[in-house]
Write a structure and sequence with these properties.
Layout lengths: L1 H9 L18 E4 L4 H10 L2 H10 L3 E5 L1 H6 E5 L11 E6 L10 E7 L3 E7 L4 E5 L4 E7 L4 E8 L2 E4 L10 H8 L2
Parallel strand pairs: 1-2, 2-10, 3-4
Antiparallel strand pairs: 4-7, 5-6, 8-9, 9-10
The structure holds glutamine.
Glutamine binds next to helix 4.
């Protein structure tokens, strides 16, 4: 979270780290960070944030989900835990650890539409396996098995397979903040 916060501040946003449901008020946008999607989903449920956040997203809150955050936004989770839920706001199916496990984490340049090449850090990253026509794909990556989207958007909801906060390049955060 600290890394996302400093990136967002660098591109001019006022940032709060959301830990309680009240803090969801008055947000223009929310970053759902990486980590472990099952744990984040569990915490969203036990903290009671889930229903309020669901409503805020429905009412137009912008969200950028990175890595585990992307999994939480997906329509379908492949290789998820049997009870794993998601907000179902990005029309895609994503495979957990689809680029391999920890040992297969890697960094590569990703060519983002309208931006250029940005460094992409993939850590047990989710792979988008199928996606709908109305999903805007801003970047693809070919990991030897054909092109898969790694940065996508549908209206106010953005998803990113990699970790844009773990580099020194703030352009993905700028894209998101400029669109708020
Ligand atoms: N593999 C993790 C999950 O399933 C995501 C990894 C990450 O966020 N770096 O939640």
């Amino acid at each position: 979270m600290r890394e996302h916060t400093s990136m967002l501040e660098r591109v001019g946003a006022d940032v709060v780290a959301v830990r309680s449901v009240e803090q969801l008020d008055d947000l223009d946008g929310l970053v759902m960070p990486g980590g472990e999607s099952t744990t984040i989903a569990y915490l969203l449920t036990t903290s009671d944030i889930r229903p309020t956040l669901e409503k805020k997203i429905e009412d137009g809150l912008s969200v950028l989900g990175t890595c585990a955050g992307l999994i939480l936004l997906a329509h379908e989770i492949l290789d998820g835990r049997s009870d794993q839920w998601s907000f179902d706001v990005l029309p895609l199916a994503v495979r957990r650890n689809g680029y391999g496990r920890q040992i297969s984490s890697f960094e590569t340049l990703v060519n983002v539409k309208g931006v250029g090449e940005v460094p992409g850090v993939f850590i047990r990253a989710p792979k988008i396996e199928t996606w709908s026509e109305d999903l805007e794909v801003l970047a693809f990556h070919d990991h030897g098995d054909g092109e898969h989207p790694v940065l996508v958007r549908r209206e106010r909801i953005w998803g990113c397979s990699f970790h844009p906060e773990l580099t020194n390049d703030e352009r993905i955060h700028r894209l998101f903040v400029d669109a708020l």
